[in-house]
# Entry
Amino acid sequence: MNTITFDTLKFVKELENAGVPDAQAEAQARALSNVLETNVKELVTKSDLDHQTEKLQRDIKEMEMRLTIKLGVFIAGGIGLFLALSKVIH
# Structure
């Protein structure tokens, strides 16, 4: 789970030292804390990217194998057709 450390007490003290009333400073700290908590859930981590990269690499390898098999079948079919036509012509 993604987390961001946010010191609400320090934030409130900073606001109070700047002249913001206690109740307003505490409300701002709660509001900012809620926003950070909500938005952190949407952040992509390096682990998320690594997982997706691995998945994409597996998918690419699978597609390469499928294309190789299809190409082999296509070539074999072409050779078979060529041989069949060469017998008909001779």
